[in-house]
Amino acid sequence: MKILVALSGGIDSSVVAHLLKAAGHELVGVRFLLWTDPLAPALAEILPSKCCTAQNAARAGKVAKDLGIPYHIVDLSDEFKRTVVDPYLESHRNGLTPNPCIGCNKNIKFGRLMELMKEFGCEKMATGHYARIATEDAASVAESRDSPLRRRLLLEAIDKSKDQSYYLYGLSQEQLSRCLFPLGGMCKADVYTLAAQFGVPFEDDTYRESQDLCFFPEKTPEEFLRRHLRDAIEPGPIIRRDGIVVGKHEGLPLYTIGQRRGLKIGGLKIPLEVVAKDAGTNALIVAEQGNENIREISIQDIAWVSWKPEENVPTPFEYRSRSLSPRKRGTLIFTHDTGLFRFEKPSPPATPGQSLVLYRGEEIVGGGTIAT
After folding, report:
1. Residue 51 shares a structural domain with residue 189
2. pTM of the entire structure?
3. What is the pLDDT of residues 113-143, one digit of tens each?
4. Would residue 268 count as lying in a domain?
5. What are the residue numbers of the active site?
6. Within-domain flag for 224
7. Residue 221 lies in a domain
């Protein structure tokens, strides 16, 4: 089989390429060049946890050379800036805390991989994501009204500590039908063992897995937002619900709902957490941790992976609002792509802009964006 392999240069994608080559497949390697912040300090080092390091670029090229496969570098800088970075900044300007990886996976990574797969005459595309895909015959299940075709189900990875399926709920059936996730059934320790067996170059004491957002050099987005949202970074009061001012914030876009660290408010027996932002008064609203809970949230831009429940009928699901947080239970009632999710138990205030992902056992059923 001819397979397009996404070679980021990380250990995971490198091992994927070696595994597929060892299995006898014909491979075509591709690496994307994505936008990085031109306003970052000239001396700022790209952290080893970023996928765009020179070390990773060199590793990707070496893997392709060692395997003797065609290797293409595709510059997506402008497209990435337009479709991922700009909306990320605008969301922060509007008081949200966006999750850019969801849209990037659907539109940039897997969207462009799909196009290149067809361009290079490949049958499948493979990545180093920790997730699994199963096939289900729609005629054998109750939701057969959706489609008579075989459906692809998106499942969590075996290694739950590395699972990335949360970020993939936006993938279409066509994309999933073409995807291969060879690492989804493995543990990370096994991947490192394979890397050593295949001779994939990495140093035990310096290698770091890619994590955090890739388009700025710092570990957190604060300095990036300061550079690009200067007009929106205006200091203001930190106040409690009763109107008492307890501190001063440095700019609303720099804070997120649920945040407790970095508020610079000391001397309290019970720490304060951010529970709301008031753009009209430029105030950051805080409360004692655990004092405020909600019973329901609105979600929008709902996407379904392989099937969807009946509209306007309450349907129980497990859910996550963060990628590796414990799953909890609730009920969704929706119409078209918007809905109301009711929690089984009172929960801390949700973070507008983040994703609520729905589960049925190990299956990722769908998800949506938490609305204000």
Report:
1. yes
2. 0.90
3. 999 999 999 999 999 999 999 998 755 544 4
4. yes
5. 104, 214
6. no
7. no
